[in-house]
């Protein structure tokens, strides 16, 4: 019987990330880097035991693997989260579903890099399913609204989302490279710890640390919830799935992020779904189901 647990792990992480957006939007008046630093510190503390248990394995990491680990820590852990959080800070100018634009373009970066760096073979059928999934996810987020109707603040937020798309798309591929040599527990732990240390150095040199002491109880609670659920836990689940399936496929399963965000937006904010969004959701689900059935033939 086929094991679908890795695919379900990626989808679960994607759904958790859609809830993450609501939590981050409540922190719109807190500097993005402060949020990134604190959430990763919380997560790093949780995963320190894995580091002590794997000291021998870590000592044997080669140079190329360390490059991959640092890439996902800096580009995925800091830059991707920073750009995403910055986009969400435009809470009065942009909807959550628009910010997840990054999930539509991330596959383009990840699939291209996976083909070049990881030498993953992409069949014509896979590329067709990928195209359908990306078109469906665009419809899920934007419907038929033309870009010309976006406000200036929406465009700025979308540019942040595009930068996050590259950061996270490339991190998916480099993360897959690191997972060829390391366990998903170690990759998660190293990413959280390295990201925390680098963030602290940046904050010490560019921010007044009193900002942290002025955070309210509700803000601390939101950051803590992010770190232990949609942050470190989702990351842990995600790397488990990424270790088991191709990076080019992983990034398509992540498209459940905008799909679930759309339904959460609908349920929580009573936003009605347009016909184009419903069609997009059907296309997205259809392509993902076919992809999961044909996965062995596509690589």
How would you name the oligomeric state of the polypeptide chains in this document? single chain
N-end to C-end Cα span: 20 Å
Counting H and I runs of at least 4 residues, what is the number of helices?
15
Which structural class fits the helix and strand makeup?
mainly alpha
Low-confidence stretches: none
Would you list the SSEs in sequence order as H and E? HHHHHHHHHHHHHHH
Roughly what fraction of the amino acids lie in strands?
A: under 5%
Query: Given the C-alpha coordinates, what overall shape results?
Result: globular
Largest sheet: none
- Strands, total number: 0
Q: Which features would summarize this protein structure in a list?
A:
mainly alpha, globular, 299 residues, 80% helix
Plain-language structure description:
The chain has 299 residues and is an all-alpha fold. It has one domain. It is 80% helix and 0% strand. It is built from 15 helices and no strands. Helix 4 runs antiparallel to helix 8 (152-179), helix 4 (63-88) packs across helix 9 (184-206) and helix 6 runs antiparallel to helix 7. The two termini are 20 Å apart.
Describe the secondary-structure layout.
Blueprint: H1 5-25, H2 32-53, H3 55-59, H4 63-88, H5 96-99, H6 102-117, H7 124-142, H8 152-179, H9 184-206, H10 210-213, H11 217-244, H12 247-253, H13 256-269, H14 275-293, H15 295-298
Helix pairs in contact: 1-11, 1-13, 2-4, 2-9, 2-11, 4-8, 4-9, 6-7, 6-8, 6-12, 7-14, 8-12, 9-11
């Amino acid at each position: 019987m086929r094991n679908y647990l890795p695919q379900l792990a990626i989808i679960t992480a994607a759904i958790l990330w859609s809830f993450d957006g609501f939590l981050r939007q409540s922190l719109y008046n807190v500097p993005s880097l402060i949020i990134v630093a604190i959430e990763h510190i919380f997560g790093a503390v949780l995963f320190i035991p894995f580091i002590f248990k794997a000291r021998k394995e870590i000592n044997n990491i080669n140079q190329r693997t360390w490059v991959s680990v640092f890439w996902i820590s800096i580009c995925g852990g800091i830059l991707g989260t920073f750009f995403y959080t910055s986009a969400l800070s435009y809470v009065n100018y942009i909807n959550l579903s628009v910010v997840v634009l990054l999930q539509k373009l991330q596959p383009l970066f990840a699939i291209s890099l996976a083909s070049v760096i990881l030498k993953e073979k992409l069949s014509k059928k896979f590329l067709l399913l990928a195209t359908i999934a990306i078109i469906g996810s665009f419809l899920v987020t934007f419907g038929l609204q033309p870009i010309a109707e976006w406000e200036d603040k929406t465009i700025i937020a979308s540019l942040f989302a595009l930068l996050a798309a590259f950061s996270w798309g490339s991190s998916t591929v480099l993360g897959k490279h690191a997972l060829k040599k390391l366990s998903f527990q170690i990759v998660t732990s190293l990413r959280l710890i390295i990201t925390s240390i680098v963030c602290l150095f940046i904050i010490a040199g560019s921010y007044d640390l009193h900002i942290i002491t002025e955070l309210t109880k509700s803000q601390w609670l939101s950051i803590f919830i992010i770190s232990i659920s949609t942050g470190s836990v989702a990351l842990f689940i995600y790397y488990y799935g990424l270790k088991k399936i191709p990076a080019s496929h992983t990034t398509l399963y992540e498209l459940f992020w905008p799909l679930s965000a759309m339904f959460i937006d609908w349920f929580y904010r009573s936003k009605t779904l347009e016909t184009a969004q419903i069609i997009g959701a059907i296309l997205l689900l259809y392509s993902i189901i076919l992809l999961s059935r044909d996965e062995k033939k596509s690589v």
